[in-house]
């Protein structure tokens, strides 16, 4: 299992959250995002889940991947979540 904690620094548009869910679904590994404050665990492949949870600046999240391509999955998910510009 790979784990990476980060703080969201940008607001995400709904279309960008859909892109993240779509990219997550291309991996075989389980990809989960934990919202530390609310103790919510989200499947990153769920478009609906991605759209309704609070991805706001200052939100602390932990990205977790587990599976055969977990290293590649966590690298891309972290890049998408950290490098987003509004």
UniProtKB/TrEMBL annotation:
InterPro entries: HPr, HPr-like, HPr-like_sf
UniProt keyword Chloroplast, yes or no: no
Provenance organism: Paenibacillus rigui
Segments forming domain HPr: 1-86
Subcellular location: Cytoplasm
A biological process term (GO) from this entry: phosphoenolpyruvate-dependent sugar phosphotransferase system
Pfam families attached to this UniProt entry: PTS-HPr
The name this protein goes by in its record: HPr family phosphocarrier protein
Keywords assigned by UniProt, alphabetized: Cytoplasm, Phosphotransferase system
Signal peptide boundaries: none
GO cellular component terms listed in the entry, alphabetical order: cytoplasm
């Amino acid at each position: 299992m790979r784990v990476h904690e980060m703080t969201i620094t940008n607001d995400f548009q709904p279309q960008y959250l859909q892109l993240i869910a779509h990219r997550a679904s291309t991996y075989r590994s389980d990809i989960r995002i934990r919202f530390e404050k609310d103790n919510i665990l989200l499947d990153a492949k769920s478009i609906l889940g991605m759209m309704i949870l609070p991805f706001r600046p200052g939100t602390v999240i932990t990205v977790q991947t587990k599976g055969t391509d977990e290293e590649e999955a966590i690298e891309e998910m972290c890049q998408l979540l950290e490098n987003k510009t509004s």
